[in-house]
Design a protein that fits this description.
By secondary structure, this protein is mostly helical. It contains 18 helices and two strands.
Length: 362
């Protein structure tokens, strides 16, 4: 089926509430080598909410490999604002693929990162566009969506959409808001980690128990993203034991065919776990799965011994090497002259409660 035929059929399946077709067509569209142009789709379906959804797909599709222009970045921001404001009312009587919901929230944060890096490199050029992709408005949009997630006393309501998400299915109108609320909470955690607001990020996930098996662990990509940033925030706050506990839970189980991005996060979590255990080795036998412990010793045993050695210079070198690979691509609303994380740390005092780690890295 040609890509344009897939687009038109997807539009019809959403309007006609064909759940199985919708999920299949979305996957087929994302696997297409090329997508129809925005102009062609707009002419075919009109300037409606489905077109806004398609614009979002078009910007993040793997086939759109060219670096977006400055005007395209601005257009994408306005598209997301319209999409997040109009999406929930529009699908109030429709089913929707879980993977699509997660993909659009995840890409929203990716584009915020990219634009923030551009703004930091040349703040004078972007001065007149201070509201576009600003930290304030990005957080505001995500916070509004996060409010859709049920309160703790209503958390059983979320069980059904998470079960459907595990099968890569679609959610009905009752559960779309729950899924968007949860995915937006994860996105908030991620954004706050990128900005160095670790405690605020952790607060975004409370009072949820993200380790609850079969509830928050259903959607693999979301679960890996959550645990990486949740563990990282605890690590940077000095809560090494909590970070070890979360990393151990997800790493001791082999994940089924994770995507490339999720595999990178799993690798980063192994590095962070090695660092945490080097800072408090006495908890390894109690908190770390035996098989995972053997794997860590095989891959990081020498580095862990060096980090615990009395040679401060050698230990610092290993800490820096592992952490430079393990931490996320930080961003900041301020200008900086280079991409060196140490400059960012110094600027925003990224170690407010972790003096030991600051000494090791800076």
């Amino acid at each position: 089926m040609a890509a344009m035929d897939v687009v038109l059929e997807l539009c019809r399946s959403i309007n006609e509430k064909h759940e199985n077709k919708m999920c299949t067509l979305y996957r087929a569209l994302m696997m297409s080598y090329h997508l129809p142009s925005l102009e062609d789709v707009k002419q075919a379906v009109g300037n409606n909410i489905f077109y806004t959804l398609y614009v979002e797909i078009w910007y993040r599709h793997p086939g759109s490999s060219s670096i977006p222009t400055f005007l395209q970045r601005l257009a994408s921001w306005h598209s997301y604002r319209c999409l997040f404001q109009d999406l929930i009312p529009w699908i109030s009587d429709r089913r929707f693929p879980y993977q699509w919901l997660w993909d659009m929230v995840d890409e929203f944060v990716n584009q915020f990162q990219s634009f923030s890096e551009l703004r930091a490199k040349d703040p004078t050029k972007l001065k007149e566009y201070y509201e576009d992709w600003s930290v304030h408005y990005v957080l505001l949009l995500l916070e509004r969506l996060a409010e859709l997630f049920p309160k703790l006393e209503e958390k059983d309501v979320a069980g059904e959409p998470m079960r459907a998400a595990a099968a890569g299915g679609c959610c009905d109108s009752e559960h779309v808001s729950i899924a968007m609320g949860y995915f937006s909470k994860v996105a908030l955690l991620r954004v706050h980690c990128l900005l160095g607001n670790y405690q605020t990020g952790l607060d975004c996930m409370r009072p949820m128990d993200i380790t609850q098996q079969g509830f928050y662990t259903r959607h693999i990509a979301t679960h890996i993203t959550t645990i990486y940033h949740y563990g990282f925030a605890n690590f940077m706050s000095g809560s090494y034991v909590e970070a070890i506990r979360e990393f151990n839970e997800i790493l001791k189980t082999e994940q089924q065919q994770p995507q490339q991005k999720e595999q990178r996060m799993l690798d980063k979590m192994r590095d962070l776990l090695a660092v945490c255990l080097s800072l408090c080795p006495e908890v390894q036998l109690e908190l770390v799965d035996e098989r995972l412990g053997y794997q860590l010793m095989g891959n990081h045993g020498e580095n862990m011994l060096r980090m615990q050695s009395c040679d401060d210079a050698d230990a610092k070198a290993v800490f820096k090497e592992l952490l430079s690979h393990a931490w996320p691509r930080f961003t900041t609303p301020f200008a900086r002259s280079s991409g060196d994380p140490r400059e960012f740390f110094s600027m925003v005092r990224i170690f407010p409660s972790n003096e030991l780690l600051a000494i090791l890295v800076l």
